[in-house]
Amino acid sequence: MRLHLLFAFPVALAAQQLDSVPKHLTPEQLDARLRYQQGSVVLGRSLATLQIPSGYRYLDPHQTDEVIQAWGNPPDPKTLGMIVPSAASPLAAEGWAVIITYDENGYVKDTDAATMNYDSLLNQMRQQVEADNKEREEQGYHTFSLVGWAEPPHYDGASHKLYWAKELAFAGEHQHTLNYNIRILGRGGVLVLNAVATMAQIDEVRNATPAVLAMVDFNPGHRYGDFIPGKDKVAEYGVAALIVGGIAAKAGLFKILLAALIAAKKLVIIGIAAIGAFFRKLFKKKPPQTAAPA
Question: What percent of the chain has pLDDT over 90?
Fold first, then answer.
């Protein structure tokens, strides 16, 4: 369940969708149904293009949804696909993936990127996690704590690409969870790439980050530099909000940003409800069932 990339032709023209996955199939049988792709892949309606190098593979949105459900989680019809390393299946315990989505909330101004205090942001996030834990516990979900930065935020003002990573500790679990995030700013929104991995895989994910960053770019007309002042929509939040996990939105607006993590058989979907605040919904990750004995 880890990394996803794009292939040689538009996602809209991808091969036929998979049938509903029978629950009795083994992970190996499920994996055999997946059609991995490589090469140049167009995301959405010519929104962006992925160039998948050797060592990585891509699954289209429908197949990504099949994998997410095979992990034992609710479907997510809004993904743009998944990037997976060629060395392991996303259905294997050692697998990892990057799930791709698009947040179309407008042009994100990056003027705050150079002056952000990342230690202060970390403290804000820790306080919010602690405040939210009581509600999570009451709803029967696992609580967790934010240990710290697994990778401090990095923003490239030339390419308008941002990445950072958080280390999370779940109650009752010895192995910590890795929340690795990549954001690519565009004219009308942000491409969201979230790694699904464990802290034990941080070196692997960290080493793959430059390759993942180089794989994807907005197409002409959708790039950050294509923004037209006075005409295009401007997001009501900046780079700091992308990192903290909050969205400065109008009253009543509820927007979910997908941030999937897998560790100790859990998938965490991180949702954001208001500026500076984030609400977590935790879903158990169940391995695909093996065939029932005769």
Answer: 34
Which two structure tokens, joined as six digits, stand for 9?
Answer: 């032709």
Distance of alpha carbon 132 from alpha carbon 120, whole angstroms: 19
Most confident of 146-150, 253-257, 258-262: 146-150
Strand partners, 162: 155, 183
Give the C-alpha separation, 130 to 284, whole Å: 21
Mean pLDDT along residues 197-203: 83
What are the b/e assignments for 133-144, b being 16+ CB within 10 Å?
A: beebeeeebbbb
Q: Provide the number of structural domains found in the chain.
A: 1
**Contact (Cβ atoms closer than 8 angstroms) between residue 162 and residue 183:** yes
Residue ranges making up the domain that contains 260: 11-284
Mean pLDDT of 37-41: 93
Facing residues of 223 across strands? 186
* 3 found inside a domain: no
Report the CATH number at residue 73: 3.40.1000.10
Q: What is the pTM of this model?
A: 0.72
**Residues whose CB is less than 8 angstroms from the CB of residue 210 and which lie 6 or more positions away in sequence, other chains included:** none
CA distance 47 to 45: 5
Q: Are 126 and 211 in contact (CB under 8 A)?
A: no
Contacts of 32 (CB under 8 A, 6+ apart): none
Average pLDDT over residues 57-65: 92
Is 290 part of a structural domain of the chain?
A: no
Distance CA 173, CA 179 (A): 16
**pLDDT tens profile 120-160:** 889 888 888 888 888 878 877 778 889 999 999 999 999 99
